[in-house]
Structures are given as C-alpha cells and as structure tokens.
Amino acid sequence: METPITLLIADDHTMFRQGLRELLERKGGFRVVAEVSDGLAAVAQAQAQQPNIALLDISMPGLTGIEAARQIAALSPSTRTIVLTMHRDERTVLEALRAGANAYLLKDADASELIEAIRVVHRGEAALAGSAAARVLDLLRRSETTTASADLLTPRERDILALVAQGDDNRAIALKLSLSEKTVGNRLSEIFQKLGVNNRTQAAIVAVQRGLVPPPDVL
C-alpha cells in the first residue's frame, strides 16, 4: 500500500479543523498526526511529529500562520507548509510565501483543489498555485525590482527557473529542455543556493522580483 501523506492541521476554528480532518481521512492516502488551534502549538507539533505537510491558517493566536510557516521552515525543514486562508489580498499571500510557505489556498476552494495542492506540494513541485495566483503575479509585475547581477544565474538556470515560475514540475521541465530529471533537480539545488531560498515558490518570487526571469502569464 502507498505510504499516506502525514498532515498537521492548525486552525483556531474547531469545526473547520474537524471537518478538514474528516475530509482528508475519508478520502484515503492521508493521515492527520496533529491538530492544533494556535501557531505556537503548530511549530511545536511540527518539530515533534515531523509531518509531511502543515496546513496553516493565517489568523491564529500565539503566532500567526505566517510566522509559524517561517519557524517551521527553519526548525522542521522536511515539513512543507500550505497556508489556508480567507485573506484574498495579494500582499498577505506574498508575505506568507516569502516566509517559507510552499503554497497557499483560499478556504473557499473545493475539496479536489485542496487535495491536489497537498499532493503537488508533497512532491516538492509547487510554485505559485491557487486561485489568487494572478493577483500575486500582478503585484510582482508592479513592484520595484532589485537589480541583479547578470551572471548570477546561467542561461540554462534561467530557463529552468522560468518554467518553475510557470508551475512546471521536474518531469515537464526535463522534457521541455531535453534534460534528465536528475539534472533538473541538481540544477534547482544550485539555483536555490545562489538565490538564498529554500523552495521553488520562494525561488520563483525572488527571480521575478529581481528581473532574472519574466513574470509568467496567468489566465
């Protein structure tokens, strides 16, 4: 049998937590290892349980979901985080992504969108995702860019990063650029190190803001 994806759910609304847990466990392939109501407990349980994915509300007592994502990224780097929020403003979403969240999803998303987001993030192949992506990318287009050294990334690395920003996974990038998946993974590790980031989402944001790759078109 396939190993289930382990999850931490952090939200200060008990009914939402319970409903989310029942949805995921009924679907199969998921196992909730911790359920908490505040940001401090989310960080503690992420360290203790080492779940594959932490689902974090933004507005929580103790620590916000944004600060919890930042601390989880530092203290439990094997745990990937998804922000679940009712906040639709792109600046809040962008702040969460900069803090280390791997993806975000609005709470009014349907169940299939949530399940797919969890699976994609678990594979480590998420960039900008969700129904608010267009607004975040528009903010990046309008924000002031930081001039970056022209030789920070090689042309091939910029090609890879542009496809990451478009949402392509390693297999799709490998096919488009006639590379092996292993080569794409190795190149991404080098890109992360050069940009000083920890994941694909942060790399895409930094690259767009610094003008290293063009903002992707989102329909």
TrEMBL record:
Annotated HTH luxR-type domain ranges read 146-211
**What InterPro entries is this protein classified in?**
CheY-like_superfamily, NreC/VraR/RcsB-like_REC, Sig_transdc_resp-reg_C-effctor, Sig_transdc_resp-reg_receiver, Tscrpt_reg_LuxR_C, WalR-like
SUPFAM superfamilies listed in its UniProt record: C-terminal effector domain of the bipartite response regulators (SSF46894), CheY-like (SSF52172)
Residue ranges of domain Response regulatory in the record:
6-122
| Record's keyword terms, sorted | DNA-binding, Phosphoprotein
Highest taxon listed in the record's lineage? Bacteria
A single MF term (Gene Ontology): DNA binding
Q: Which GO terms describe its biological process?
A: phosphorelay signal transduction system; regulation of DNA-templated transcription
Q: Where in the sequence is 4-aspartylphosphate found?
A: D57
Q: Name it.
A: DNA-binding response regulator
Print the organism lineage.
Answer: Bacteria, Bacillati, Chloroflexota, Chloroflexia, Chloroflexales
